Amino acid sequence: MQWRKVKLISAEDYKVFTVNTTEFSRGQHNGIFYQIKAPDWVNVICEIKQQIMMIRQFRIGIEDYVLELPGGLIDSHEPALAAGVRELAEETGFSGDAQVIGTMFPNPALFTNQLHTVLVTDARKTNEISREIFEDIEIVLVPMHELKQKIAHGEITNALTLASLMQYFSLNV
Is residue 85 in some structural domain? Predict the structure, then answer.
């Protein structure tokens, strides 16, 4: 199924984030700055028999498909671990033993939110997939020994996926 842009609806639609205009001072100097207040995000690294479950998903920002980790926004007051388990189940139907392996600030120059990386091991199909209407997702199993090669060849380009994979690789140092 092909995607195409129909028209721009509004440039003021901030459903996913809030832009704060804030005055800061430093010594004798004052300045106006912008902060983008967005919900925290979770990425899930799901191991299945020496493979990592990734998804190929259509992303509106670039109007193309991207190979990335399952994940999504963390609901208000939801723990990162619960969000990771929920997102994996919704997008892929899989679950397993889960733990948070890292937290980071995706872009602290502008954004206030954090990205949490959840590792799921011993994954197995346990649920029906319950994706949202605009989630266009294909499950892709990547052999662990091919991950770094896919990164080097530009097949994995989502910066947040790359950051979570770096946390994963650091576990095995």
Answer: yes
